Structure formats: structure tokens, C-alpha cells
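Q&A log
Question type: sequence-to-structure
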Amino acid sequence: MPSWVACDEGHHGGRRREAAIEISQHGSLSPCSQCGKPRFYFVQQRYANTGETHEYVVEKVVRLRQPADVEEEGYDPMIFLMRHRQLGHTCVWPFYWGRDITRKWRVGQFPPLLTLEELKRSVQMLEELK
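Response status: OK
Response body:
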């Protein structure tokens, strides 16, 4: 799952975890240091069932733990709200970073992308089971 931070001019730069935290705190990334244009966090997904590759832009991030807990536990789960770059639909992606034995942050991911409608329907079905 390649991902990168870049502006519209193609200037790459910025660490992905820090970009996700910045989006969660401010709603967007700071401008590109080289040209001043907006920067974005892009994610590319390859789907095993079709072999297709799709690109998304991260629009919102929700951190599920407080920063102090993240540092203590070495686990930083988040929810990404991402827009498909070609089709325009919005998807939800549970995501996390965890510290490895060397204390470096490594990425991890939960199940594949869900549309907002699929997520709502899933939660509704769970509620009906109560």
C-alpha cells in the first residue's frame, strides 16, 4: 500500500504519520514549503480480488487515542475518511501505526475500505443484533 504526501506541483515531502496527525488536528496539511500550494496525503490500494489499483486522497483523520496514551502504549489507531481520486466516492479506512521492537513507528491496517453507506449499514445491523 504505497502512500505519499505531495502538492499539486508534485513536490513530495512529509512523513505520513505526522501528516495524518496534522490532518486530525487542523483539518488539512500545511502548504508546500517549496511552492506554497496545498499538500495532500495520497494512498494507493491494490485489490487482490480484481488486481486493480486505485488512488485515494485522505480528507479527514480521527485519532482514536489521546497522544499521551499513544506514546505510552506504542499504538496509534485512526480512522481515515478518503475520497477516491477518479470516482469521487468517499470511503472509511481503519488504520493504525504501532511501534516495533526498535521503537520505530510501523504502519498497519485493518479490513479493506468500506463506503460510508456500507459502514452505516454494518453498524445498523450490529445494533439490530442487540
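Response note: The helical segments are 16-26, 67-73, 116-128.
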